Amino acid sequence: MLQLLGYSGPLLIETTLRSILGAPWLQPVDWGLIPKFTSELYDEVTFSIPSTTETLIEKPDGVAMEILRVVFFSVNCSSLAETPGMIEALIKKGYGFNFWEVPTTLHA
Fold this sequence. Notes:
Layout: H1 2-5, E1 10-18, E2 24-29, E3 32-37, E4 44-52, H2 53-58, H3 60-74, H4 84-97
Antiparallel strand pairs: 1-4, 2-3
């Protein structure tokens, strides 16, 4: 969309999660998804990630990985984001969940 608008430059990706206290999150496992309660402390989390249109176009998986890393640490579920490999695996599971072709190498 940004390309169609002709915008090129810095971006600030802002995200707010609301009503998350005690809300079940789905954790991927080999055979599907299981609910897991997280965010035991906060009902709302807001964060911003600086980026650029170039990064978003060339490395969209890397941007998604950074968002997931911040989300999981924010809601006290850092065990899902302890290593870059764990986050890469989650991104690939997301591709499969959406019935998209799972890339062998992510654009990170």
